[in-house]
Write a structure and sequence with these properties.
Elements lengths: L37 E4 L4 E6 L5 E8 L2 E10 L2 E8 L2 E10 L2 E6 L2 E7 L65 E2 L3 E5 L5 E6 L4 H4 L7 E5 L2 E2 L5 H8 L1 E2 L3 E7 L4 E7 L68 E12 L4 E5 L5 E2 L5 E6 L3 E14 L3 E13 L4 E13 L2 E2 L3 E2 L1 H6 L3 E3 L2 E10 L2 E12 L2 E8 L5 E16 L5 E20 L18 E11 L9 E13 L2 E11 L7 E9 L11 H6 L4 E6 L4 E9 L2 E7 L3 E8 L5 E10 L2 E12 L1
Antiparallel strand pairs: 1-2, 1-8, 2-3, 3-4, 4-5, 5-6, 6-7, 7-8, 9-14, 10-11, 12-13, 12-15, 15-16, 17-21, 17-31, 18-20, 19-20, 21-22, 22-23, 24-25, 26-27, 27-28, 28-29, 29-30, 30-31, 32-33, 32-41, 33-34, 34-35, 36-37, 37-38, 38-39, 39-40, 40-41
Length: 693
């Protein structure tokens, strides 16, 4: 069991089921507090919470790597504290509400989790029956209250019309020919997962008169979910004959509520800054950009311009750009990361049947050294493509194996799929950062500050958590949304220590520290960046490679090659990229179970090692042509020429080399040859294309 149980290097898809009623809490102090009940998604965990009994109690579960761990919690002063057990060990966690989700902290690590809506795939349809959740209860569904109940009152449960069944509700009469159409005076903007966030309220409109605030997101209109709906579909639901009621289900940080509004004719003029329509925030102050050193093609980051929504007479805003303009295909972000373990004792006990130290249960131990450990390296993330709602990224990790020279070697490659709200822990939408309120309670602090890095002063939003085990802090640039600096310090058990009398003492503690800093941003343009993936790249397609893995050590007899295989399975398209799974198999050939693993990947053409380069592009390349240089990592990408029908692209660093061979007729990647020096050993991996579907 890892010490940071909620921390993972490979992201997992998080799924959370809504287990609480959508009715807002009543004024009765014994009524359930449901502010934390809901659906949350993040990077490495799944959290399910439901209000449990009167008061502020919650119960639920964490789901991590497919395993479930029950948890309990209690809310107080706007924060949540709880615990869950894993293999007999209890872990504590805390959470605070944030715009569109929560900030969760456990073992000194902080996770930004987004609330996820549970609804039908068809945005304009309602399922015949509510979905079942793992705890056996049904998710209640609500319908609008009668128009005379007024906004802010609790809606009453009722039957929902299902496809193919007659409705038992009073239907809204069809508008008479020539009837005037009206709206409600709410301006929306794209939010997490494409949701419509309430951004502004038109003065004098129905929403302003009802006291609606420019916060939260739209969940449903007249009982119909709008999850995944287009702008025109939502507009069609809200707009209607003047004088008729429409019910909006709105979710804020603290509650989910129905608001009944009466459609009205609205002014053609968009709202001006005022009480209900706050003026756009001023642009962040300018300063020197991140120094790019010797890196080629430095990319300056333009100052984001405020983009207030354009509200038409119906009261629904036109869609604005969800991602900042500086984020585009080929943008490459490099971060430096380091970590270390500081031992609390120089000697600890290891279980040994012949040892001289004995614990109260009679187990025997022997003493051994307890050295510290540490290391550092780089993460390089390349944006493969961006749509209106998603971003696909290829992330590669390079670990410094020789601290004297600073030489790094390729260690891993993973894929990240982000939303308009965030990209893992590396980026948060600046619009979301701007909406965050400063706070300091329950061990959680959110504040605005300045952070000096690389001769530039960044204006940042800081998320900080503290508890008895340590702290975690992340600082995000308010201009770009990028993680500028992150750090954590966590105290963990380090093992029993020996007593002079031959017995064991209480466990000592180790301190684990970690730091991350933004290193540089640059624009990488490869000759094949604009090549489209061919028709065989489609959902469900697979590409398979097989070959050998060899480890050589000087003056040691060479072992027989191990069997090695790599598989790429395409999933969903994200613009011109695909989310995918990479499976690996290493068979030692000794009869032991082969070592297997699965990694999230993103596949496109605009990165080194792509599965396809068009034959037309291959013909334009020249022998020994330098394609790209990363002088920070001392890496160079070259086209080394054509031999027979194979074109060779080489990615070379000080400690490792990857050669990619492409068929000049089809453009497909047909072989990969990888070699890395690790100490005195040399590791070689050679695989060839063996088929796919």
């Amino acid at each position: 069991m890892p010490t940071h149980f909620l921390t993972r290097s490979v992201p997992a898809i998080l799924t959370v089921l809504l287990l609480s009623s959508l009715l807002p809490a009543q004024d009765n102090p014994l009524a359930r507090d449901k502010s934390f009940a809901g659906t949350y998604t993040g990077e490495a965990i799944t959290l399910t919470l439901e209000a449990s009994g009167p008061g502020k109690q919650y119960r639920g579960k964490f789901t991590i790597d497919g395993k479930e761990y029950p948890c309990t919690a209690e809310s107080a002063s706007g924060a949540l504290r709880g615990s869950f057990a894993v293999e007999g060990k209890t872990y504590e966690f805390s959470a605070a509400l944030a715009q569109g989700g929560i900030h969760l902290t456990s073992d000194g690590a902080t996770h930004v989790l987004s609330r996820k809506q549970d609804g039908p795939r068809n945005p304009l349809a309602v399922p015949a029956a509510p979905p079942q959740n793992p705890l056996g209860s049904q998710t209640p569904r609500i319908t609008p209250p009668s128009p005379d109940s007024g906004p802010g009152l609790s809606p009453t449960p009722a039957q929902i019309q299902t496809p193919g069944q007659p409705s038992n509700q009073a239907s809204v009469p069809a508008p008479a020919p020539g009837a005037a159409m009206g709206g409600v005076g709410i301006g929306f903007e794209p939010g997490p997962d494409g949701a419509l966030m309430l951004q502004s309220i038109m003065p004098g409109g129905p929403a302003a008169k009802a006291g609606v605030k420019p916060e939260g997101k739209l969940v449903a209109v007249d009982g119909k979910s709008v999850a995944g709906a287009t702008f025109d579909q939502v507009r069609g639901l809200i707009v209607g004959p003047v004088g008729t009621p429409v019910t909006l289900l709105i979710e804020t940080e603290k509650e989910v509520m129905d608001v009944v509004l009466v459609r009205a004719t609205l002014s053609q003029n968009p709202p001006q800054p005022g009480a209900n329509a706050p003026a756009p925030a001023p642009a962040p102050p300018q300063g020197p950009r991140v120094p790019l050193g010797q890196a080629p093609a430095p990319m300056p980051l333009p100052t984001p311009q405020p983009m207030p929504p354009q509200i038409d007479p119906t009261g629904v805003a036109a869609t604005a750009r969800a991602f900042p303009a500086w984020m585009k295909r080929g943008t490459t972000i490099t971060l430096w990361s380091g970590s270390a373990t500081i031992p609390g004792a120089t000697s600890v006990l290891h279980q040994d049947d012949k040892g001289n130290w004995v614990d109260p249960q009679g187990n025997r131990f022997s003493a051994g050294d307890n050295p510290g450990a540490g290391g550092y390296g780089f993460t390089v993330m390349t944006i493969l493509d961006i749509t209106d709602t998603q971003i696909a990224v290829d992330a590669r990790t390079y670990t410094v194996l020789d601290p004297q020279s600073g030489n790094a070697a390729t260690m891993s490659a993973v894929g990240y799929v982000g939303t308009t709200e965030s990209l893992g822990d590396y980026w948060i939408n600046p619009a979301k950062l701007a909406r965050e309120q400063e706070m300091n309670q329950g061990g959680v602090r959110i504040m605005r500050a300045q952070y000096p890095l690389n001769n530039k002063m960044y204006n940042v939003l800081v998320y900080e958590t503290r508890n008895a085990q340590g702290y975690s802090r992340s600082s995000y640039d308010l201009e770009t949304g990028l993680l500028v600096a992150g750090g954590s310090s966590t105290i963990v058990n380090g093992g029993f220590t020996p007593n002079p009398n031959g017995t064991t003492a209480a466990p000592t503690t180790n301190t684990m520290i970690a730091q991350t800093f933004l290193a540089e941003i640059r624009d990488v343009r490869l000759p094949w960046s604009d090549d489209p993936l061919p028709n065989w790249a489609a959902p469900g397609a697979q590409v398979n490679f097989a070959g050998t893995y060899i480890s050589r050590i000087p003056d040691v007899p060479e072992l027989a090659p191990w069997r090695y295989a790599v598989n790429f399975a395409f999933d969903k398209p994200i613009g011109r990229a695909f989310s995918a799974k990479q499976g690996t198999l290493l068979d030692y050939g000794t009869g032991a179970q082969p070592q297997q693993g699965t990694t999230d990947r993103c596949i496109a053409t605009n990165y080194v090692g792509t599965l396809y380069i068009s034959p037309q592009t291959l013909q334009t390349l020249r022998p020994n042509q330098v394609i790209d240089e990363d002088r920070r990592l001392k890496r160079r990408v070259m086209f080394t020429g054509v031999q027979g029908n194979l074109a060779s692209v080489v990615d070379q660093g000080p400690l490792d080399t990857s050669q990619y061979l492409y068929d000049t007729q089809s453009g497909r990647l047909v072989a990969i040859n990888f070699e890395m020096k690790q100490g005195i050993a040399t590791i070689s991996v050679n695989v060839q294309l063996v088929g796919g579907r």
